[in-house]
Amino acid sequence: MRIKMALFLAIAALLPFSLVNAQQAAQKKPLDIYFLDTEGGQATLFVSPSGQSMLVDTGFPGNQGMPPAEANAPGITRDADRIMAVLKLANVNVLDYVVITHFHADHAGNAAELAHRIPIRHFVDHGPYTVEMQAGRDAPILSYLPIRDHAHAITAKPGDRIPVEGLDVQVVSSAGEVIKEPMAGAPGAGAPNPLCRDAKLKEQDATPENFESVGIVVRYGSFRLVDLGDLTWNQEHALACPNNLVGVMTVFHTTRHGDPHSGAPQFVDAIRARVAVMNNGERKGGSPEYWQTVHDAPGLEDFWQIHRSAEGGASHNSPEQFLANINETDHGHYIKMSVRTDGSFTMTNERTGFTKEYSARAPKSAQ
């Protein structure tokens, strides 16, 4: 009995140290972000240091976005397969949150397919509707709605938070609305934007579902990333004028694949991102006009692209080491970002293994 009691006391004495060690180990884990290649769609995976996961968008269904000979191949689930491969690599067995920014095929195309392959705890979207129900555009939502009806679905509103443990994820746009007040505690939020004085607006584009996009800001310590889906130019303007409502960012996930219907300079310049990541395809997005706006933005250190843009040519593409995929036969490669607790981070081009370190630093507006 004395031996058992002594053993119990010894184990009990070690428990506090074990808990402390476990907490310290969790704090040392990075936030991992995978920018996947969906040939000009979007699928971005966040794996929190807590172990919880959030996938933003699901890419094209089937083999869309590829040359016709490949796009029409039967039985293909290209982007779903790519997402599942990265989930396995990241040891993600359950998706805690899947954010569907809007119901275009290149964003919502595999929502139903993934739900059949992996448990999904929560969907987040702008609501169970789309303004584009005509034939040819309604397939993604028609396949998703039966899944949504039996899932735990959250209709996002500007100002809401998506409770991913270990991260602060705030919704800044949804269902055609954007936040009206500066984000609390965000560096630079609420500051007057002098670029608004001469800013120009654009006519609403011909694909109104983009206007409904769920946009988010992800914060991990001093690290901040903004992803607005396919939000339009005028809505970016509303987030930046007359005052910058979102503040400064570490990373700008470029809006609408680098299409000139988005990329308002008054927004892009105001957020002063250190790094931009463009989810373009070789022949989708990546317009020279948009590329130049981002390239010239104050504070930008590097511009990473999922694909080399054919339209961009030699003068409107980043150096080769920052391109995950060079052409349509060289595809499927992703960009990985690992963010440490002090705000420093690394970015890696999976195709080449090229890695760049970014040291921690205070936002420009706070320096």
Radius of gyration: 21 Å
Mean pLDDT: 91
| CATH-derived architecture | 4-Layer Sandwich
Share of helical residues: 10-25%
Spatial ordering of strands, largest sheet: 6-5-4-3-2-1-16-17-18
Which of globular, elongated, flat, extended, rod-shaped describes the shape?
globular
User: What is the strand tally?
Assistant: 18
Strand content: 15-25%
The helix/strand class is alpha/beta
Q: Give the CATH topology.
A: Metallo-beta-lactamase, Chain A
- In terms of quaternary structure, the protein is single chain
**CATH superfamily, called what?**
Ribonuclease Z/Hydroxyacylglutathione hydrolase-like
| Measured distance between first and last alpha carbons | 64 Å
Report the CATH C-level class: Alpha Beta
Count the domains: 1
Uncertain regions spanning at least 5 consecutive residues: none
Largest sheet: 9 strands, mixed
Q: How do the SSEs run, as a string of H and E? A: HEEEHHEHHEHEEEEEEHEHEHEEEEE
Number of helices: 9
Explain what you see.
The chain has 367 residues and is of the alpha/beta class. It has one domain: Ribonuclease Z/Hydroxyacylglutathione hydrolase-like (Metallo-beta-lactamase, Chain A, 4-Layer Sandwich), CATH 3.60.15. Helix content is 24%, strand content 22%. It is built from 9 helices and 18 strands. It has helices at 2-28, 68-71, 78-89, 105-108, 111-117, 139-149, 233-240, 265-271, 288-295; strands at residues 31-35, 44-47, 53-56, 95-99, 120-125, 153-155, 161-162, 168-174, 177-178, 215-220, 223-227, 251-253, 275-278, 302-307, 323-325, 335-339, 345-349, 355-358. The strands form 2 sheets. The protein has a 9-stranded mixed sheet with strand order 6-5-4-3-2-1-16-17-18, covered by helices on one side. Strands 7, 8, 9, 10, 11, 12, 13, 14 and 15 form a 9-stranded mixed sheet that branches. Helix 6 links the parallel strand 5 (120-125) and strand 6. Helix 7 (233-240) crosses helix 8 (265-271). The longest helix is centred in the first third of the chain and has 27 residues, at 2-28. It starts with a helix and ends in a 9-residue tail after the last strand. The model has no long low-confidence stretch (mean pLDDT 91).
